[in-house]
Amino acid sequence: MDRPALREGGVMRVWMAAMGGEALYEQDLPGCCRRSARSFQGAFECPVCGAMWQAPPAVEPEGCAFTEGGPEESKGAA
Length: 78
Known about the structure:
Elements: E1 14-17, E2 23-25, H1 31-37, E3 43-45, E4 52-54, H2 71-75
């Protein structure tokens, strides 16, 4: 396959199917969708096959129980 290497400055963008939830790297999209994906940022509909793709939502990291203070810590328990 024709995949740009990350060390050559290639960016691996991810697209998620608007109706399904399937997420694919841009390089793994069908050829017609891949051509359209290059010119869009947030979402697009492929003019050839009609598939709708969108950028996945931003994910916020979960809190860590080891670094967050609990009720015992606020009371000064050792």
